[in-house]
Write a structure and sequence with these properties.
Keywords: Amino-acid biosynthesis, Aromatic amino acid biosynthesis, Glycosyltransferase, Transferase, Tryptophan biosynthesis. This is Anthranilate phosphoribosyltransferase. It comes from Paenibacillus physcomitrellae. Residues 86-327 form the Glycosyl transferase family domain. The chain is α/β, with parallel strands linked by helices. It folds into 2 domains: 2-66, Transferase, Pyrimidine Nucleoside Phosphorylase, Chain A, domain 3, CATH 1.20.970.10; 78-332, Pyrimidine Nucleoside Phosphorylase, Chain A, domain 2. It contains 16 helices and 7 strands. The chain has helices at residues 2-8, 20-31, 37-50, 54-66, 94-103, 124-130, 140-150, 157-160, 162-165, 168-174, 179-183, 205-214, 271-282, 288-304, 311-324, 326-347; strands at 78-81, 108-112, 152-156, 194-198, 219-223, 238-244, 247-253.
Length: 349
């Protein structure tokens, strides 16, 4: 490990990118705890300063995948890769959109952990806990059972990837983004051919799109979404890269062009408010900004997975599923299954 560290930590002008093979070796050393905490921290900080190369990112993704549990619960599904450091100032529309998509015949894989740096925001796992579903107390099998019933899989990354979880103390102490903030979102727990991936800075569009192509996804959207998430804005246009078939193209998705542009209220977001808002939308109601945002995000995902010929067609399908109660029923099937598992686990103690 010390030799790899010397390459990436030579300073601003002397630092060198690692080859794929050397980066994979470094990732293995970190994940297997062969690297000391000091070496690991120094390596992650040096990579952050140097900026990770495409081969380094690819190697770290493959190393993380090697040591994770990955389940092909569905023949085809969409992986929604949002930030593990959570959200502070925006609605997590991916959560209700997942149940709309499942009701439309497109299974979805969601994943996350308790909050991580640098944002320390509200995560999907926090929202689940607000619903009485404590992912840290339930086995992966409980979520697989709920997924087979509802078409929505949630993977608690700490349980599905314990080697990654063991790095939490170092990551918390560093309190900054590291190469794992990208790699952990691409572990692909559900072996998905379709992907939405959130970024914050437009400077990484090209690198991430090339990474996604190398990882072999059929179709993917890299989205410069809310707080670096894969959620499209509803009050302004969102820049995206569409990647697939070995190519990528930049585009803009503008809600105003579809009659969906809606002012978004400023709210103090908590896990309970995120859950309340999501459940209101899934019942066909709630604030129009969040209803429309869920609608748009679901419609775009239907299109990239080939379940709708256009975003407009996707909007028509998704609106029907929200207003008819189908999405709400799918959500209740998922939630009911997990609450029943939680009750059984509690009763067996």
């Amino acid at each position: 490990m010390i030799n790899h560290l010397k390459e990436v930590a030579r300073g601003k002008r002397g630092a060198r990118d690692l080859s794929y093979e050397d980066a994979f070796h470094a990732a293995e050393a970190i994940l297997n705890a062969d690297s000391t905490p000091a070496q690991t921290g120094a390596f992650l900080a040096a990579e952050r300063i140097k900026l990770e190369s495409l081969p380094e990112l690819e190697a770290f993704v493959h190393a993380c995948r090697k040591h994770a549990r990955r389940e092909a619960v569905f023949p085809e599904n969409l992986d929604c890769a949002g930030p593990y450091d959570g959200r502070k100032s925006s609605f997590v529309s991916t959560f209700p959109a997942a149940f709309v998509l499942s009701a439309a015949g497109l299974p979805v894989t969601l994943h996350g952990t308790a909050p991580l740096p640098p944002k320390w925001g509200v995560t999907l796992q926090d929202i689940l806990a607000a619903a009485g579903i404590h992912a840290d107390r339930l086995s992966p099998e409980a979520f697989i059972t709920a997924a087979r019933l509802s078409g929505v899989l949630y993977a608690n990354a700490d349980k599905w990837s314990p080697m990654l979880a063991s790095l939490r103390p170092i990551r918390e102490e560093l309190d900054m983004r590291t190469i794992f903030n990208t790699a952990e979102k691409l572990v692909d727990y559900g072996t998905s051919p379709y992907l939405t991936f959130g970024i914050y800075h437009n400077t990484v569009f090209d690198r991430i799109s090339r990474l996604v192509i190398k990882l072999g996804y059929k179709s993917a959207l890299i989205i410069q979404g809310q707080e670096g998430s894969d959620d499209l804005f509803i009050d302004r246009a969102t820049r995206i890269y569409a990647a697939g078939n070995g190519t990528s193209t930049m585009d803009v998705i503008d809600p105003e062009a579809m009659g969906l542009d809606t002012p978004v209220p400023e709210l103090e977001w908590s896990a309970s408010l995120q859950l309340q808002t999501a459940e209101e939308v899934l019942q066909g109601g709630g604030h129009m900004a969040f209803y429309n945002q869920t609608l748009l995000n679901a419609a775009v995902r239907l299109q990239i997975a080939g379940k709708a010929g256009s975003i407009e067609e996707g909007l028509y399908i998704c609106k029907s599923l929200l207003d008819s109660g189908e999405a709400w029923r799918t959500y209740n099937d998922w939630k009911g299954s997990l609450l029943a598992c939680a009750g059984s686990a509690s009763g067996s103690r």
